[in-house]
């Protein structure tokens, strides 16, 4: 079971993933691109939905490799010798598959793939071997267009600890929203949701933190407001949190303990926040101390803050900062 601070969902989170990353031998050469991180380290936390567009359209493995070919404004997907063109088949597959993936809360793609690359896919100029890394995998692009706020990453980029933490923060937040919306949105639900995410928003974007609150002040059309809020919410979380913003957020939370902590405890918390600010300790250190103080001095508003536990501690994501 996967749980999150403040969330009431009980099922494992659904994440789409390129089949080759799970060790499935679906590559053009009959091999795979297994990611040990995806396959071993985090698999227990998620329900993977593996997809390989090339196998799905019947290309088989091994097979001739394919690449993107640009002819004016049109992108074709063809074999190097031009004997195979699977553009129409891939478009038909995407037309059918993409709508069936609305239940996902994240997607991990294989890099550089002409079907699944998230960015920097090579596009070849028609009739030449001259390419530029300006492309996006055709299936990945359709997913990104259909679900612009779906957290998406490539397996290689997850080796960057900051990108990794940001991705999974968005995955769990997206799922939290998903679960809330299943039973229908109300003004009360929107306001409660925002209340729990205030400090996480502050850490990622003080600007969005200030803008999203007033949006909920005078709700007339709940559905429309929810759509506007979600747009801003996911946009804010995509901005990587900085040490400066985390420090400010921690200091705001610290203010709630002023009446409870003795001089030694106040000094300890201040010192740990400053050590974090200076890069001497990871974010986990002041967060752990705050959680310890919460156990001693319960403060319901702070206890409900997703910021303190945006994802399971066992994922070991807060060593990034």
From TrEMBL:
Q: Write down a Pfam family by its short name.
A: DUF1722
Q: Which domain of life is it from?
A: Bacteria
DUF1722 domain ranges (all copies):
198-312
Looking up InterPro entries in the UniProt record yields: 2-thiour_desulf, DUF1722, UCP037004
The name this protein goes by in its record: DUF1722 domain-containing protein
Q: Which organism is it from?
A: Shewanella intestini
